[in-house]
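Quick check before the chapter quiz. The format below is the same one you will see on the exam, so make sure you can read both the input and the output lines.
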Amino acid sequence: MSEPVEGEIPRMTLRDRDGELVQLLRAAQLLLVKYPVAARATVRSFVAEGRRFAETEEGRAWSETLADSELLRRGRLVWEGCSLNMLEEDDRTVFPSVLLEALVAAAAHANLETLLARLFGAHDGAAVP
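Here is the expected output.
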């Protein structure tokens, strides 16, 4: 990775940029659906650690720096695009309501077969890991 230029988004170079990245994101989606309780516990621990850090002087400085960050905005798009925002903080929720809403929306989708083909990677020859 080269030295970052002020105002530019840092870039990482992967061996197979798109293929490897898509495979990792699909694996994250699969883990979330397969192990929602463990995924929620993991994310909750990261959130708790982040909140503790945000209470420190250094954490507040980073919070101000990242408030208008393009990288953070793009990271949120990836997070939401992978459906990782379906994790709920309430421990009593075993099956996230966002996932249920997605299932109902998919069932009502006019082009369900196309949607499912895209979900399982039939459009690019890749199967879900």
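If your answer matched, good. The chain is about 60% helix and 0% strand.
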